[in-house]
Design goal:
The complex is a heterodimer of chains A (about 110) and B (about 110). Chain A is an all-beta fold. Chain A has no helices and 11 strands. In chain A, the strands form 2 sheets. In chain A, strands 2, 4, 5, 9, 10 and 11 form a 6-stranded mixed β-sheet that branches. In chain A, strands 1-3-8-7-6 form a 5-stranded antiparallel β-sheet, with no helix packed on it. In chain B, the strands form 2 sheets. In chain B, strands 2, 4, 5, 6, 9, 10 and 11 form a 7-stranded mixed β-sheet that branches. In chain B, about 40% of the residues are buried. The chains are: A mainly beta (about 110), B mainly beta (about 110).
Chain lengths: ~110, ~110
């Protein structure tokens, strides 16, 4: 079983749609959680950290359920510029700086 | 931009050859982590360097090795290249080994023929 698993995608949605990405992680000792965005053939960039209380940044909302070991990302009113691959990332403190990435979910927003 | 630079941007090698990839960390960062990203997959942790020593390693064979220099820049060396080594190699710098926030460079795309 992979340490971090995401919806396989791709997701093809029209502009303005709401889209949700799901992610599960296997190590209950995981302590830090993130969503990264990766544009085609570019490096991953931090989109947002994910906190137990849930957090929002504009059109983006991230949720964490530690009991279920589940992380989500919701994008509202999607824009063409949101088209990218979204990576769910976990860090377990006793593994130092090792970030564990899911395989990514590709999003394509169409006009 | 993150301030993390990598060279070269692209590289083509043949099986059995050796390759060296380079990374300059962001100013003030003393830790560099290396990741391999195969096509269609998420990045996989190779190893991390802190104060010139390896500080954690992922599930990669010994032919993957690295160095960190006093200025905190780093190299990734891969010997006896295999076709499956074709990937995007990313380095990420951070202020400390346990710091969650890592800043990625643009990557080096390696193709092994």
């Amino acid at each position: 079983r992979k340490e971090v698993e995401q919806d396989p995608g791709p997701f093809n949605v029209p502009e303005g749609a709401t889209v949700a990405f799901n992610c599960t992680y296997s190590n209950s000792a995981s302590q830090s959680f993130f969503w990264y965005r990766q544009d085609c053939r570019k490096e991953p960039k931090l989109l947002m950290s994910v906190y137990s209380s849930g957090n929002e940044d504009g059109r983006f909302t991230a949720q964490l359920n530690r009991a279920s070991q589940y992380i989500s990302l919701l994008i509202r009113d999607s824009k063409l510029s949101d088209s990218a691959t979204y990576l769910c990332v976990v860090n377990t403190q006793n593994q130092g700086g090792k970030l564990i990435f899911g395989q990514g979910t590709e999003l394509s927003v169409k006009p | 931009e993150t301030g993390v630079t990598q060279s070269p941007t692209h590289l083509i090698k043949t099986r059995g050859q050796q390759v060296t990839l380079r990374c300059s960390s962001q100013s003030g960062h003393n830790t560099v982590s290396w990741y391999q990203q195969a096509l269609g997959q998420g990045p996989q942790f190779i190893f991390q360097y802190y104060r010139e020593e390896e500080n954690g390693r992922g599930n990669f064979p010994p032919r993957f090795s690295g160095l960190q220099f006093p200025n905190y820049s780093s190299e990734l060396n891969v010997n006896a290249l295999e076709l499956d080594d074709s990937a995007l190699y990313l380095c990420a710098s951070s202020q400390a080994p346990s710091t969650d926030t890592q800043y990625f460079g643009p990557g080096t795309r390696l193709t092994v023929l």
